[in-house]
Amino acid sequence: MRGFKTIKKQPTQPQYEVADVLNVLGSRLEDLGLNSWQLRTLSALKKCRTSALGGHIDACDECGNISISYNSCRNRHCPKCQSKNREQWIENRETELLPVPYFHVVFTLPDVLNKTALHEPKMLYDFLFESAWETLQTFGKNRGLKMGMIAVLHTWGQNLSLHPHLHCIVPGGGVDESGTWKNLRSDGKFLFPVKALSKVFRAKFCEKLKHQLSLKLNENQREKFTENEAGNYEKLRQSLWEKPWVVYAKKPFGSSKSVVEYLGRYTHKIAISNGRIRGIDDKTVTFDYKDYRQKGIKKQMVLSHEEFIRRFAMHILPKRFVKIRHYGFLSSTWKRIKLKNLQQKLGIQPKEKLPPKVFQPKCSCCKVGNLVTIATFDLRGPPQWFLEMSQSQPTPKK
Ligand SMILES: [Zn+2]
Ligand SMILES: [Zn+2]
Ligand SMILES: [Zn+2]
């Protein structure tokens, strides 16, 4: 398969990729102490759009140009496999919009929990989702309203460090007992006081952690759970009360349509996009990041191959972990019927969910024609006729 690297990266494609770092890292990857799920994910990313996954040969229905593409891995952690899912997701959410103000709220875990997040990511991230939702629900209930929320988990900070936080899109009101919509505020300010939200959020989270600890101690695990560990747990629990927790509310959105576009930017984001990688040499990886402690100025960070991949792997979510969740009147049980009624009451025509769009790639040669697949192949490589044809023909002009 060597010598068949005829596909040059398109000018719009990033020059460097996470996969390139994995390639230079080679077998040193095994020394990083990653679990088998992380290794499997990284292996998928490494093979994405290479001959290892096979591919297809397409013809343009306009200019007749024949081109070859390798299959993508479709892994949700892959920097190359995000945009398609994102578009579909945005389209589906657009059918669920209400003509009401929306808010963006971010719930962040303090960094004293980072170690626990690495060891028990599922537990901790589940608690994050639950605590955020229970917090909003509590405030809504005080006003007699059922709330709704869409939440997306991000686990990273700008420099690939661990920084678990939840982006939540919250409609600025709720449904009362009679099923009628009520706006919570009319002055455009955030729904609830952020300081109060932070306090309730922390209390909910700590309560869950405490409960989990008592379960651990009761489940005949006393022997396994050494005194030392119990002490550490207790120390951790106490440190959670030392610093204030941060709940951040951004300004409301202009229109409800912009909400979904905006949220789409967060839903299918991963720890680092390939476009941020500026260089890879035989020892290090250089990438751009924004330093939010200094007003978000752009800086560059240099890490060893090992450290870069170790950090990247911290953001590989547990198998089947749901990272986008819908709550309250935006949850799937509600959505089917009641949300449509609500939309009608608010004077908008409910839209039907569209069937998934067939992805129709455009020809890179003439830019207008659609590509039609004329042959597929597996990891053994493209068919003989294609190889002969591509050898006898000059490569098509760019
Ligand atoms: Zn991929
Ligand atoms: Zn984020
Ligand atoms: Zn064409």
From TrEMBL:
InterPro entries documented for this protein: transpos_IS91, Transposase_32, Zn_Tnp
Protein name: IS91 family transposase
Residue ranges occupied by any Transposase IS801/IS1294 domain in the UniProt entry: 148-332
Membrane-traversing stretches: none
Taxonomic lineage from the root: Bacteria, Pseudomonadati, Bacteroidota, Flavobacteriia, Flavobacteriales
Gene source species: Epilithonimonas vandammei
Domain Transposase zinc-binding: 33-109
Pfam families according to UniProt: Y2_Tnp, Zn_Tnp_IS91
Biological process annotations from GO: DNA transposition
One Gene Ontology molecular-function label: transposase activity
